[in-house]
Description:
The chain is about 45% helix and about 15% strand. By secondary structure, the chain is an alpha/beta fold. It is globular and about 55 Å long. It has two domains: about 10-50 and about 150-315, Rossmann fold, CATH 3.40.50.1100; about 55-145, 3-Layer(aba) Sandwich (Rossmann fold), CATH 3.40.50.1100. A six-stranded mixed β-sheet has the order 1-2-10-7-8-9, with helices on both faces. Strands 5-4-3-6 form a four-stranded parallel β-sheet, sandwiched between helices.
Amino acid sequence: MPVGCPDLRAILEARQAIAGSAIRTPLVRLNAPEIPAEIYLKLENLQPIGSFKIRGAANAMAHMSADDLRKGVVTASAGNMAQGVAWRARELNIPCTVIAPESAPETKIRAIERLGARILKVPYDAWWRAFEERSYPGVEGVFIHAFDDPNVMAGNGTIGFEILEDLAEVDAIVIPWGGGGLACGIASAIRELKPATKIFAAEVATAAPLTASWQAGSPQVIEPRRSFVDGIGGKSVFPQMFERAQRLLDGVLVAEVEQVASALCLMAERNRIIAEGAGATPVACVLEHAKSKIVCIVSGGNIDLTKLAEIFGTK
């Protein structure tokens, strides 16, 4: 197992730690018999905050001391991790501060506010520095990293156990790549439990730093272009996350924005599932070419309803 990745014991302990906050989400088949592959959807959009992020946030906070909890918590997030941390902070009755980029979708900002967190909207570069420095000037509290944290990855890794319990014969798992905490967490569990299973990261073509890094063999910096797929796609890959990815993943798949929109509409039409762009990206990556039993992680469903209606209106 790569350095800094959770082992099975840590992931099993995380299952117990997060049981009161996160739910065990269902695995359902995509109702598209005309497609060669058997595509299954792991519905993390059904979590209380509409995203898998509650798993990692709850497990990270379960490992904090009482003294640290009293100081409050801080995270940098465009929306979903912020909601996960804010949700658990509200349960624990402790302060929560969120460093958010100025470009964060308003639907996610409103959700964070409803959970009682204090939000600081900052320029994108300042937001990215908060990830790198694990703090923000003048803000007190224990910083919870959205992806580069073994406890966060262990919480995410509980998804791997659930998948194999529901579909032991899975051939491949496709996982959205944002910072890498979801992909590396799930892969940490699968590599020990069923190592023959193929594991792929999924990116959108307009913001695919892992793809660029994978092709170059080293972490690369890109200029991401904004789209409705806002839950994934930063400007670079952290070196330590890239090292984990190289050891844990079999490759990276990329979908165009239009393909993601089509996948989102297909999921809504056939299964009545509402996914955000990041959650639909794995499905978009495998619809046309796959021919085996594939699990796609529907990472979240926090999409602005106006944007959703606009996408539906184009199909």
